Amino acid sequence: MDLDALYRDPHPTYAAARPAPGLTYVPELQAWLVSRYEDVREVLSRPEDFSSEGALRPDQLPRAAALTELVKGFGGRPTVLSRDGEEHRRLRRPLVRGLSPVRIAAAVPFITRRAEELIAAFAAAGHAEWMSAYARPLAADVIGHLMGLEEGDARPAVAAGNRAEDLLFQPMTDDEQAAAARDVVGLQHLLDGYARARRDEPRDDLTTEMVRGLAPGTEPLTTDQRHEIVANLQNLLLAGHLTTTALIGSAVHLLLRERAQWELLCARPELIPAAIEETARYEAPIQGFRRTLTRPLTFAGTGLEAGDTVFVSYGSAGRDGGAGFDITRPPGRHLGFGHGVHGCPGSQLAREELRITLETLIRELPGIRLESSEVVMAPTLIHRAPESLRLVW
């Protein structure tokens, strides 16, 4: 199997690994696959043994042309995803404050208005490509709103953030890498401008929380502080829309693929919270992250050495036991948003965006259906969502 095929459909690999004794080594990932629910939960509960350093190892390394551009920007510092212990707690605190239940509740009117506007923009056409017409723009607008970005900056910033993902995970020519790097540097300078502005004039937004948390005080930001703040703002921008985009795309795909589930949801909207959790369980928006062994140990019957890499698959854990997609399933635990100290701090925001999305769809477009049963998933294990989802009504 090549890497693209694994990324587009990892579930056969997961399904083969779960009943196998011990851990399964997956050459395409250059890692031991942790596939069973209890094993995934245990790894995530033991950060002292399974370090987050290298959680997002790139598939591609920027070459000389890209590096020439990247040195003109900011960032290049560790982010919350790849740190442990007190350093992780320091980087995570601003996110927890900025994504508090109170802040998310305050954003609900904005989310509702944007959801209604986006659906109204294509409702009369009778068809839409869901990911580009709704899922991506809604998630971009919402994270931009919470970060305090000007309306005209949010979507271009997210698009530039996606270029950073492309640069590290998609094969490109030297010229393509350089172009992507220029877009990333442009984003970094934009975020640096916002950070310095919030230092001078704090606001009630995530960018201000990041500046306060990572650079306490009132004096002008140092160069090192600016690099760290930009790196973590860039990470927030990417994570803040990818997870939600994936959840919204997968929910609509699964509900319409299992038509009876969509019709049941339309008849019983009180099942929307269950549909959200079932989507996160069955098609985890975050497929998983790598962890690095800090010491030799035996785990799940497999001997591992210090420095070995495991891929902790939230996506596989959700299907442990073989249960199909069913929104009437009694509530249960799942790892769709991770677990423990590295659990996704934006999970409640993603849930709210999907809740509002489903409520609006049921009210405005209950007759939607898939244009085709053939849906191709995006080639990535960072998140999991349809590459394209064409709907008609």
TrEMBL record:
Alphabetic keyword roster: Heme, Iron, Metal-binding, Monooxygenase, Oxidoreductase
Gene3D superfamilies found in the cross-reference section: Cytochrome P450
Domain of life of the organism encoding this protein: Bacteria
Alphabetical list of Pfam families matching this protein: p450
Family: Belongs to the cytochrome P450 family.
Database matches in PANTHER family: CYTOCHROME P450 YJIB-RELATED (PTHR46696:SF1), P450, PUTATIVE (EUROFUNG)-RELATED (PTHR46696)
Protein name in the entry: Cytochrome P450
Classification of source organism: Bacteria, Bacillati, Actinomycetota, Actinomycetes, Streptosporangiales
